[in-house]
Amino acid sequence: MDGERFNLRKLNELEVRKQYQTEITNRFAALENIKENIKTSAKELKQHKPWFDEECLGFLDQRKQVKVQWIHDPSQSNVDDLNTVRRDNSRHFRNKKKVYLKAKIEELETNSKIKNISDLYRGINDFKKGYQPTTNIVKDDKSDLVADSHSILARWRNYFSQILNVHGVKLKLRHPRCVCNNEVKDNVGQNTTSLLAGC
User: Fold this and answer.
1) How many CA atoms lie within 13 A of 196 on its CB side?
2) Distance from the first to the final alpha carbon of the chain
3) What is the rounded distance in angstroms from the CA atom of residue 162 to the CA atom of residue 120?
4) Concatenated DSSP letters for the chain?
5) Averaged over 141-169, what is the pLDDT?
6) Sign (positive/negative) of CA torsion 21, 25, 26, 28?
């Protein structure tokens, strides 16, 4: 423990006890919301390999059933059945993956031959990096975690408006692509020549 002491005698008072119970209930409810948001996000993000299809799911279900049967009755025939099903599953998955990879390689060759460079490099990067999961959770103003997309967008909008609006002054620019030093100096009122290069 970190040496912090609590006055537990206050919990004998009815009002303090009710307030404490309410606080604890709210905290656990917030944790449940986080837990549910994480589970929902995980289900949305859960992706099988691109070659994994309904047929592969059928093979997995078959293997699960045979394994459950083996767990209930570990006889030699069930062991043999389980090994046979595992071997068939591995062979099926290996063949599916091989067909998928062959098709992707042919697609990359086609992109290379027709000089479609952007799709070629995108495909190569997909091969090199694989699946890259992203997290969609940010902290709001109160340091609570926010997971839904509308709240995240609102949080970023508020954050950038606070950062970019210096002392409540909004920049009035002529063209969004070109910001000149004089415009920034006039609007912000400080020397920014070192910040803006190339204008």
Assistant:
1) 14
2) 57
3) 41
4) --S----GGGGGSHHHHHHHHHHHHHHHHHHHHHHHHHHHHHHHH----TT--HHHHHHHHHHHHHHHHHHH---HHHHHHHHHHHHHHHHHHHHHHHHHHHHHHHHHHHHHHTT-HHHHHHHHHHHHH--------EE-TTS-EE-SHHHHHHHHHHHHHHHHSBTTBPP--S-SS---HHHHHHHH-S--TTT----
5) 79
6) positive
Phi, psi for residue 189 in degrees, rounded to 5 = 85, 30
pLDDT 10s digits, 44-68: 555 667 788 888 889 989 999 999 9
Q: Which pLDDT score, from 0 to 100, does residue 194 have?
A: 45
Q: Are 137 and 155 in contact (CB under 8 A)?
A: no
Q: Is 50 exceeded by the pLDDT of residue 149? A: yes
pLDDT reported for residue 77:
92
> Taking 50 as the threshold, does the pLDDT of residue 191 lie above it?
no
Domain range annotation of the chain: 7-47, 49-129, 136-164, 166-199
